[in-house]
Write a structure and sequence with these properties.
- The protein has one domain: NAD(P)-binding Rossmann-like Domain (Rossmann fold).
- The protein is an alpha/beta fold.
- A seven-stranded parallel β-sheet has the order 3-2-1-4-5-6-7, with helices on both faces.
- Strand 1, helix 2 and strand 2 form a beta-alpha-beta unit.
- The radius of gyration is 18 Å and the shape is globular.
- The termini are far apart.
- It is built from nine helices and seven strands.
- The chain binds NADP nicotinamide-adenine-dinucleotide phosphate.
- NADP nicotinamide-adenine-dinucleotide phosphate binds next to helix 2, helix 5 and helix 7.
Length: about 260
């Protein structure tokens, strides 16, 4: 195999990728990475100011990017974001269902409306985006859907009842989708990050009454074999693998990106 063949395997040239929650953290890191690999990326988020700014930054760097406002809890928003993507780029190949929020409360503290919010953003949002994107993937002969789970898709965690429910749900919903859409050459996988240095991790620290300082960050990785906190780029590299042709026989699976944390 030649060097250029390896580059072809990694290339997303001609592909169109939708990234929910793409204005910040893991979603933003992944939007930049997929654009670098040649994909046209459509950033969906509720943060319009940041989303527009980051899409422009990708364009300035020579990538193809577009921002579209989308609250993934809304069926109408999801449907129109998919329509806008199709009108703009003519196809949809990759869907990174990444938007999420973390409410660090146990079942006694959590209010019913907070439960609804958490599950609507993560779980319902992933279902809605999939519902509207899949018909386009079928038309173009296939696609790759990557749902963001967590280490807490596989294990429970403290003061995170809704988060654990939705991330556990993501994992099995992924399997159901992989079974339903395999016949259309659509692959569906879950990515399970460990602690990643993003605004969400800072928010979790603050919700738990801590300061997001060196000591806190160290506590996030002290039990991980690879002794550092994760970065959005760590997850973006794994999403690139699942999005492209190197993983073409991988579906209904999950990929843990956590410095080995789940191993112990
Ligand atoms: P982040 O930096 O907070 O980014 C999440 C983005 O999603 C934000 O721009 C946020 O906007 C947006 N968003 C929130 N609600 C939305 C909605 N209803 N519709 C559309 N967009 C919405 O978080 P992150 O750390 O990158 O997390 C991304 C994903 O990774 C989440 O699913 C999270 O659960 C998962 N994850 C993160 C970690 C970690 O340690 N960071 C670990 C495991 C899994 P606002 O900022 O305006 O709310």
């Amino acid at each position: 195999m030649k060097h250029t063949d390896i580059q072809d395997l990694l290339s997303l040239s001609g592909k169109v990728a939708i990234i929910t929650g793409g204005a910040s953290g893991i979603g933003l890191g992944t939007a930049k990475k997929l654009a670098l690999a040649g994909a046209s990326v459509v950033i969906l988020d509720i943060n319009d100011a940041l989303g527009n700014l980051e899409a422009e930054a990708i364009r300035q760097d020579g990538g193809k990017a577009h921002f579209c406002h989308c609250d993934v809890r809304s069926a109408e928003n999801c449907r129109s974001a998919v329509d806008e993507t199709f009108e703009m780029f003519g196809r949809i190949d990759i869907l990174f269902n990444n938007a999420g929020i973390a409410i660090r409360k146990n079942a006694l503290e959590l209010e019913p409306d907070e439960w609804d919010l958490a599950l609507d953003v993560s779980l319902k949002g992933q279902y809605l985006m999939t519902k509207y994107a899949v018909p386009h993937m079928i038309k173009s002969g296939g696609g790759s859907i990557i749902n963001t789970g967590s280490g807490w898709s596989l294990r429970g965690g403290e003061n995170a009842v809704a988060y654990c429910a939705m991330k556990g749900g993501t994992l099995n919903m992924t399997r159901a989708m992989a079974i339903d859409f395999g016949k259309y050459n659509i692959r569906v996988n879950t990515i399970c990050p460990g602690d990643i240095d993003t605004p969400m991790l800072r928010s979790e620290c603050e919700q738990l009454g801590g300061d997001y300082d060196e000591e806190y960050i160290k506590s996030c990785y002290k039990s991980r074999p690879i002794q550092r906190i994760g970065t959005p780029d760590d997850v973006a590299n794994a999403v690139l693998f699942l999005a492209g042709s190197m993983s073409e026989w991988i579906s209904g699976s999950y990929l843990v990106v956590d410095g080995g944390g789940i191993a112990g």
